[in-house]
């Protein structure tokens, strides 16, 4: 039952999904504009970034001991990595909206899944800060990051899988290949981070996620260079 229901959402079938979501809430598919999706996406991502900063408390009356330096080093490491991942989500969302000619209900549902995954990043960051020596916290952090990559891939596939969303056929090829590269990068970093966090210290399972935006930027730049040269 649920498998068929989720499949209908992903494929954008309107027979059952639209009456349930749009009709029950007094909205139609035509009313779902890219501007409204972009506005709520910016708001949710801005709140997620703000929550990360709110955790950077300045201790009062505490000397700069080695223990405090170690504490702040892991705090800032988790903050930087988490903030960069929030930026990656925002860039993905902005890129999807700029490439799409129109926005469907299925894309809206996937976008809210993306925002839900992004809203978990502050929680995952706080978890590894408070329980830096816990493998469970490291696994939760890895799972949240991997979930963000998986949802981004799903949106790429949905956009590239229909001619109604895109004006240029080359854009569909670009989105499909970019989504596949990004999925492979997230799978590679997830495997590497999990192994390092399990064999060494759980903090290694967090630090390795700094590789994902670097690898995404490098592979995207190389793909564009090959396209220009050809």
Keywords:
230 residues; mainly alpha; 10 helices; 0% strand
Number of strands: 0
* Fraction in helix: over 70%
Q: What's the number of helices?
A: 10
What low-confidence regions span 5 or more consecutive residues with pLDDT below 50?
A: 12-30
Structural class: mainly alpha
* Largest sheet composition: none
Average pLDDT rating = 81
Strand content: under 5%
Overall geometry comes to: globular
Radius of gyration: 20 Å
Distance between the termini: 47 Å
Description:
This protein has 230 residues and is mainly alpha-helical. The chain has helices spanning 2-11, 14-23, 34-54, 66-99, 105-119, 121-130, 135-160, 169-199, 204-207, 211-229. Helix 1 crosses helix 5, helix 6 (121-130) runs antiparallel to helix 7 and helix 7 runs antiparallel to helix 8. The longest helix has 34 residues, at 66-99. The N and C termini lie far apart (47 Å). The model is unreliable at 12-30 (pLDDT under 50).
């Amino acid at each position: 039952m649920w498998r068929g229901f989720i499949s209908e959402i992903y494929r954008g079938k309107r027979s059952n999904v639209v009456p349930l979501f749009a009709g029950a809430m007094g909205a139609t598919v035509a009313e779902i504009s890219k501007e409204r999706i972009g506005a709520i996406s910016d708001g949710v991502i801005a709140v997620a970034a703000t929550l990360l900063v709110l955790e950077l408390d300045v201790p009062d009356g505490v000397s700069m001991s080695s223990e405090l330096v170690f504490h702040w080093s892991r705090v800032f490491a988790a903050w930087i990595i988490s903030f960069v991942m929030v930026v990656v989500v925002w860039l993905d969302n902005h890129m999807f909206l700029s490439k799409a000619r129109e926005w469907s209900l299925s894309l809206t549902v996937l976008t809210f899944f993306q925002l839900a995954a992004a809203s978990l990043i502050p929680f995952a960051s706080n978890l590894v800060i408070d329980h830096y020596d816990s493998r469970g916290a490291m696994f939760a952090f890895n799972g949240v990051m991997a979930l963000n990559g998986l949802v981004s891939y799903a949106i790429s596939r949905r956009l590239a899988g229909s001619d109604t969303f895109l004006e240029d056929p080359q854009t569909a090829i670009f989105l499909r290949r970019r989504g596949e590269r990004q999925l492979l990068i997230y799978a590679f970093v997830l495997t590497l981070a999990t192994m390092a966090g399990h064999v060494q210290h759980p903090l290694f399972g967090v630090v390795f996620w700094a590789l994902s935006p670097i690898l995404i930027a490098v592979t995207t730049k190389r793909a564009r260079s090959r396209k220009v040269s050809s």
